[in-house]
Amino acid sequence: MSTIPSLTYFQGRGLGQFSRVLLHYLNVPFENITVTEISDALRATLPYGQLPLYRDGDFVISQSSTIARYIAKKHNFMGKTLEEEFLVDQIVTSIHSDIFSAFSNPNEEKIKAIYAKFFGSFEKKLQENGFLVGSSVTLADLYVYVGYDYIKFRGDSFFASELSDEKYPKIAELKKFFESNEGVAKYIKERPETKF
């Protein structure tokens, strides 16, 4: 059994992107296992028959946001207090439950309202505090960066105009901050070009 953790997901960014970027940002050595399909043998090892899957020794979990929370908690990246941890969790949940669900079922008016509501709130918090939660960078900041970047990567011209760096300059700064991290920069440079 490997002594370093492993993350199993498709080669594309998708929902595995949050944990991949997090692991690189935190400089956590891990095995990045990519697959082109979920074979029957692999499916038999998956708690819910789906990816991503994270192994840390004998501990195995799935669900993308749960994996990211586990990694962040283990490496002190969830905030400094219990209250901060739950505020981080609130933002992580909003990315998955509200923002990504709207992106995957596009209705222009609905998306416009959701993006204005959530990204507008994130932008305001960053303007006021410099960070989304507390007085230091946390998983919340990384999640907003990855979510913002992924939607722009996947979106058409409508999505791009709704999530412009001019409209959300503090989120654009957050993107620059994470992408200037040595581990994240190396990962982005070596990441394969994919459609999702």
Descriptive overview:
There is one protein chain. This protein has 196 residues and is an alpha+beta fold. Helices cover 57% and strands 9% of the residues. The chain is built from 9 helices and 4 strands. The chain has helices at residues 17-25, 40-43, 64-74, 82-104, 108-129, 139-154, 157-162, 169-179, 182-190; strands spanning 6-10, 31-35, 53-56, 59-62. Strands 2-1-3-4 form a 4-stranded mixed sheet, covered by helices on one side. Helix 1 (17-25) crosses helix 6 (139-154), helix 4 packs antiparallel against helix 5 and helix 6 (139-154) crosses helix 8 (169-179). The mean pLDDT is 91.
Short description:
With 196 residues, this protein is an alpha+beta fold.
The succession of helices and strands, N to C, reads EHEHEEHHHHHHH
Q: Please give the alpha-carbon distance between the first and last residues.
A: 31 Å
State the secondary-structure class: alpha+beta
Q: Main sheet? A: 4 strands, mixed
* DSSP strand content: 5-15%
**Helix-residue proportion:** 55-70%
- Radius of gyration, in Å, reads 17 Å
Envelope shape:
globular
Strand order of the largest sheet: 2-1-3-4
Q: Total helix count? A: 9
Poorly predicted ranges: none
Mean pLDDT: 91
Q: State the total count of DSSP E strands.
A: 4
